[in-house]
Amino acid sequence: MAEVNNWQLGRKMWYPYEEKHPEWQFAFVFNINRCIACQTCTMACKSTWTFSKGQEFMWWNNVETKPYGGYPQFWDQKGMHLLDKANPGRQAWNSSGDGFYGTYKGTTIFEAPTAKQRERGQIAVGYVPTDKEWRFPNIYEDTAAGDTSMDLYTDHGKKGNYNWTKGEELPEHTGRWFHYLQRLCNHCTYPGCLGACPRKAIYKRQQDGIVLIDQNRCRGYRKCVEQCPFKKPMYRSTTRISEKCIACYPRVEGKDPISGGHPMETRCMAACVGQIRMQGLVKIDENGEWKKDRYSPLYYLIKVAKIALPLYPQFGTEPNGYYIPSRVAPRDYSKQMFGPGTDHAVDLYLAPDRETLAVLNLFRKTQKIIFKYAIQEGPKVWETQINGKHFTMYNDTVIGYGKNGEEIVRTTIEEPIHIRPEKHITSI
Predict the structure, then answer these.
(1) β-strand pairing of 397-401 with 372-376
(2) Residues 2-30 pLDDT 10s
(3) Among the four residues 6, 68, 174, 406, which has the most C-beta atoms within 10 Å?
(4) 309 vs 130, 245, 318, 383, 417, CA distance in Å?
């Protein structure tokens, strides 16, 4: 075991391999608040990569409804339970610590195993989901929480009462709520699957940090399935080896025929109807820190505005998937999922400043990866008060640039409105 730097935790932690980092890192941001759970991303991935025999239960990309849904079922509850069992009641953050989000004072999945477990070769706490837990990719979809008389599914399948006592009125959901969580492999900086594999069949690519399984070396021991806390490696019984999301790496490499040689977003990102997704590549230094790149949209959202947060950073894998937390979920629920930066992220999303609003408008405006952005200021078009905070909107123009500095997209804050003339081609 070695000590490595985990900037999301604000401290060093134990990991089975010495510190080593790629030149660039594949990363992405999801805006939970805009997802409509249409599952277009899910089917885009499914129809591209997992449509063959033995892959029927494989959903490398999935969208699940929180708090009750999950694929495999209970993956997050069980992972957090294992951490708490190893270090009862101490999975907490010191928000005034030295780290980016503060300092995590609890135990990671790599620090939780006992000495006897380490002797048996277990590098992280984990579990292999049952067949039943893999059967329901859409379980409890659109099932809300929060009704005082409802004790729904609180005991791993125990069904409670559907006694809806009152309605809700927009824009506040004070009584009941749910939100969608979009998931794929996080291509972690310190992957649990990579550290667990006794065959060393899993590796991170130097050029982009994408985590892949060498299927010639894999023997199907399922240690990767056991010790990935997000449960994204999946065992295929027909070949007796494991498979996982490959981040559509030919597209990231610019080898898709329609990309013209430009790095391109993955299938799930590019298919998103709700325009909730932004994918990119960020520069990494030798210590695993993100190199300062002020006008990279991902760097801005994550490192400057701090509006996008990592998913379950307390697991210790340093995931490279980031989320703008739900504005309707209880803050305590979101904090256990995204860490102590939740209050700031939600408040900023509810009343974004001028630059943040501009960058948010770049989501899904092009299939090509945006490496830089610029803003051309426009006129003021609206102002109001949001939660007691003054908000002003300007119709700025936002420009996105590709890897070589070429302009690849240009959009305005206000969407153009086109009014069809009374006489048009389809009129009778």
Answers:
(1) antiparallel
(2) 999 999 999 999 999 999 999 999 999 99
(3) 6
(4) 30, 21, 11, 28, 34
Residue 156's closest CA among 94, 81, 89? 81
How do beta strands 389-394 and 241-243 pair? unpaired
Domain count, the chain: 2
- 155 domain-assigned: no
For residue 265, give the CATH number of its domain: 3.30.70.20
Cα(406)–Cα(402) distance, integer angstroms: 5
Last residue of a domain, one of 348, 370, 398: 348
| Domain stop point among 303, 333, 348 | 348
Range of the domain at 394: 353-412
Instruction: Give the tens place of pLDDT for each residue, 327-372.
Output: 999 999 999 999 999 999 999 999 999 999 999 999 999 999 999 9
Is the pTM of the predicted complex or chain greater than 0.85?
yes
Contact 176, 144 (CB under 8 A): yes
Cα torsion through 393, 394, 395, 400, rounded to 10: -100
- Asked if residue 68 lies in contact with residue 143, where contact means CB atoms within 8 angstroms, the answer is yes
List the structure tokens of 115. 């000495």
* Span 245-262, average pLDDT: 93
